[in-house]
Amino acid sequence: MTQDTATLRAEQISKCYNGRCIIQDISLQLAPGELVCLLGVSGAGKTTLFHTLSGLERPEQGRVFLGEEDITGKPGKISYMLQRDLLLPHKKILDNVALPLVIRGTPAKTARAEAAPYFAQFGLSGTEHQYPAQLSGGMRQRAALLRTFLGSRGVVLLDEPFSALDALTKREIHRWYMTMMAQLQLTTLFITHDIDEAILLSDRIYILSGKPGTISAELTIAPPRPRDLSFGVSPEFLSYKKEILSLLDAS
């Protein structure tokens, strides 16, 4: 399975419910291979923006593009992983991760054969015929990320993908995901409430604030990825954190 290098681009997106605007005039762009974070206070419209980017919701204003294709209001074009892994408890892990291929019309046997080679790369060897309840939280998250990858066209949206993990497991998954992104040429936009996580992982950070939510700032994190643990206690890291906290306090 090969990934293309399509970019994700949103132009002046606004989304309202019952006459109340949740997000307004949002424009953003991801370059191939970037990991970009969307950071903001609760209620700023981060999940609403993800629903719109993924095609689950159609905006009142604006367009969403994947490469040159207009995907506004077209679900299934971009993979979207929610905070919970949402693995189906009655299906084996192999069938869970192959599900996006089956939904696209691939016969189940062919979908399993296409998904199976990725199990070793995702650290899931030996889990193919287990059920979700038999896996640890970290392994379930890997399975969910593999399912997301198989449904993607090189761009994935992750809504707080690591928040349910304990600190040690989260650190391990962070390192692993950075490696997977490079190997698979993935582009990632993710939501987090964890400022440290955003600074450690991101190439850029969009600050979403206000009601309706708008992008109030964009920060570039200069040190190249992957960043070692020493960066997390460096003066440069603390400077980024102070700037972000100031921006969030002002929102």
Helix count equals: 8
Helix content: 25-40%
The low-pLDDT segments are none
Strand order of the largest sheet: 6-7-8-3-9-10
**How would you sum up the global shape?**
globular
Average pLDDT, rounded to a whole number, is 88
Largest sheet descriptor: 6 strands, mixed
What does this structure look like?
This protein has 251 residues and is an alpha/beta fold. It is built from eight helices and ten strands. It has helices at residues 46-53, 93-103, 108-115, 118-121, 137-150, 167-184, 195-201, 235-249, and strands at residues 8-17, 20-30, 35-40, 61-66, 69-70, 79-81, 155-159, 187-192, 204-209, 214-220. Strands 6-7-8-3-9-10 form a six-stranded mixed β-sheet, with helices on both faces. β7, α6 and β8 (187-192) form a beta-alpha-beta unit. The protein is globular, with a radius of gyration of 18 Å.
